[in-house]
Hints:
Number of strands: 7
CATH class: Alpha Beta
Radius of gyration: 16 Å
Largest sheet: 5 strands, antiparallel
Number of domains: 1
Strand content: 25-35%
Amino acid sequence: MIRPILIHPDPRLKKVVPPVADVSDALRTLADDMLATMYDAPGIGLAAPQIGVMSRIFVMDCADPEATPEPLVMLNPEIIGASDELGVYEEGCLSIPDIYADVTRPEAVTIRWLDLNGDIQQRDFDGLHATCAQHELDHLDGKLFIDYLSTMKRSMITNKMKKLKKARAS
């Protein structure tokens, strides 16, 4: 099921979400819904708070849209290592539509998470995959990519989003 995506500013997007307690069928259904919502948007990542679910889960798929999908579902993800080398990528966000900005993050990260079977996984990510995973993990900690920008840029973007929300509501 495709779910509505929250648009910034929404207080739920600024909250640190609690860990997933156990892997259940409801959580697997949530993951399926999140992937369907992400692909429909279209996007390459989606965190549970973006659809109003306050749980530490995100999905991502950075495969080329023409290639075979490579969906990843991460429960209770944590970065356990990051490179000293930094990379700059132009980021966007499904909760901040049509806005893009360069964000500097570690070029590579090692992430540990639970999969949908409750098994611990660990993997190294670099490039776009590392950026996407860090961006989605930020969502679980109540942080948006615009929080890396200057106060003035962040204010301008927030005002644009307020106007967008108003226009969509009428």
